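[retry 2/3] Serine/threonine-protein phosphatase with EF-hands: previous attempt timed out, resubmitting with same input.
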Amino acid sequence: MGCGVSKSNQFHKHSRKAVTTIRAAVLIQRWYRQYVARTEMRRRYTWNIFQSIEYSGEQAQIKLYNFLGYLMDNFTPSSSESEASAPLQTWERYFCYKNIEVPEVYSGPHLTFPLTLEQAIGLLDAFRNKKQLHSRYVLQLLLETWRLLRMLPNINRISTCHSKEVTICGDLHGQLEDLLLIFYKNGMPSLEKPYVFNGDFVDRGKDSIEILLILFSFLLIYPSDVYLNRGNHEDHIINLRYGFTKEVLTKYRVHGKRILKLLQKIFSWLPLATVIDQKVLVLHGGISDTTDLAVLAKLDRHSKKYHEKKKMIKKMLKKRYHSKNSSSEQSCSFHFSKLELQMIYINLKGSSLTVVCHQILDLLWSDPMTQNGCKPNEVRGGGCYWGPDITEDFLNRHNMQLIIRSHECKQEGYEFCHNRRVLTLFSASNYYDVGSNRGAYVKMGPDLEPYVIQYQASSMTRELTAKQSIGRTERSALKVLREQLFAHKSDLICAFRGFDTENAGLVSLSDWACAVESVMHLNLPWRMLRCQLVTCKGSDGMIDYNAWFHELHIEQTLLETLYRHRSTLETIFRIVDTDNSGFISMEDFRQTWKLLSVYLKMEITDEAISDLAVTIDSNQDGSIDIDEFMEAFRLTDKKSRLERGRSMFMGTATDLTKLDEDPNV
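[retry 2/3] Serine/threonine-protein phosphatase with EF-hands: success.
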C-alpha cells in the first residue's frame, strides 16, 4: 500500500508539473500572439502613413499639372507651339552632339555607335563606381534611342520558347542598387534572357539618369529582347516635382536643358504595354471597363495630321478650362498627362475623344480594388479603381489569362489579387526607408506561370532584426507625418477652434482626430496614432493643441519643413529659371507673375509686381535665388515680408492653396 501511495503522489506531482507547464506555454503563446499582433499593427499603420502621404502628393501634383503645363507652354521658349510642330530634322539639329568636345582629363566611359555589349557592361561598371557619362555621349545615346522608339508600336508583342524565360521588372524609381542586384542575381539582358521593364524608371531615387542610360543601352543592343513600358513618372512635368529634373540639371549643368528636352521626346514615344504569348498583359497602372487594346494599338503617333490635331485640341481644351460654366466632364480633360494629350490629338476613326483619353489615363494611373465595379481613383487623383469583375471581363474579351502591373509599392515586392489574375510587381526595395519593403521581379517561361524572386538591395537590412527594422521604419514614417502636420498648422488650428467653443485651447481625443482628418485627408487611424503623436495632455484627457504644435515645432530640424508648398514652389522656380543658373532675374519674375495673374484671373498691376519683387529680393542683388523665393512663402504665425505682397495682389499664398483645392485645376 505504501508503494501505491508513493506512486499516486508521484503521479499527482507530475500532473501538477504538466499543468504548470501547459499554463506557462499558454501564457507564452498568448504573449507571443499579442506581440505579433502589436508588431503587425505597427507595421500596417506605418505603411498606411507612407502610402497616404505619397498618394496625397500625387493627387496634389495632378491638380497642379495644368498650371505647371500652362506656365511651361507660355514661359519656356522651348515649349512654344512652333517648336512643338517643328520637323524631326529641326529637332535632330537641336540635339546634335558633334560640337561638344570630350576633354582629355575625362576618365569616364567612351561610347561608339553602334553600341556593343562590352560597352554596355563598361557603362554599368562605371555607374557602379559612381562615374558619370559625358554629356556628348549622353545626347548621342539618347538620340539613337529616340530614333529606335519612333519605329516601335504602341503595344509590344513578344513570345517565349522552350529555351527562353522572360524577366519582368516593376518600378525602379532611380534606385540603381536594385537594378544592379537584379542583373547580378538574374543575369544581364541578352538574346537568351529577354527583359520587360514596366515603367517608372525615374524620380525619387538619386540615380534615375544612370538607370535610363543603362536600359537604353541594352535596348539599342537587343531591340528584340528588351522592352520598356511607359509609367506615369515618365512625364516631364511630374519629373519637375519628384526629383528627376533637378538630378539631370545638377549632373549636367551645361547641357542639362537639351538632355531633358530629348528625354521628354523619348518618354512620349515609349510603348504603352507589352503582351507575352498573347496571354499575359504587362502594363504600368491598370485597366478600366472601357480599356480596348485594339483601339490603343491603332493610335498612330507618326500621323502627318498629328500637329494640326494637337493645336486644335489644345485650343479646345484651353477654351473649355477658362469657361466659367465648364462641366466636370470637360474639366477632367485637364487631368491628362502629356502622353495622353498627344494621343488624343490623333485622328482615330470610330473612337470618341473622351474614350481614348480615359483609356490612356487608366493605363498609367489605375489601381485594382477588392470590390466589383469601376470607379474614379480619387486617392491618386487620376485613373480608376477596377474590381475583379472588370478583370474577368477584360481577360475573357482579349482571350488572356494574367495582368502584370506595377505602380504600387508592396511590402513583399509583389501581390496577387483578383483570384490571382492580377499581379502587382514593385522592384524598388527600401522604397520608403531602409527595411520598409522588399523588391521583386518575375521570371516567366513558356508555361506562363510567374515565378517571383524577392530581394532587398541594402546590406543594412540584413544587419537589422525584424523588431529593429519595424522600429526604424516606424520612426521614419512618424517623422514625415509630423512634418506634414506642422506644415498644415494654420488650417489645423482653425479646425481645432471649431471644436473649442470655450476657447480654452483644449479638445477631446475624438474632436482632435476629426479635426486632423478634416484637414489632412489621409484616412489614417488618428485615435491609435495619438499616443505616437501627442504627449502633452490637458485635464481629463483633453489635448492641449497649442502645446502640441510647440512640441511638433521643437522636433523640426530642417527649415524646409516650414514650407507648406515647397514642392510646388521649387517646381515653379525650376520652370522660371530657364538657364538653370539658380537665379531668377527681375524680368523673369515679372513675366511669371503676369502669367499667374492671367491664369488665376487676378488683376495685378506692374507696379505691384515690381514692389513684390523688390520685397522678395532680400539681399538687393537684383535677382531672386531659391532661398529668397521660398522664404517669401514661409509659413509663420507672425506677419512676414509677404504680408505687403499679399495686400498687393489679393493673397498669393491663398491662391496657391486654391490651385491645390480647385477641382477644375
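[retry 2/3] Serine/threonine-protein phosphatase with EF-hands: Residues 2-75 form the longest helix (74 residues).
[retry 2/3] clearing retry counter.
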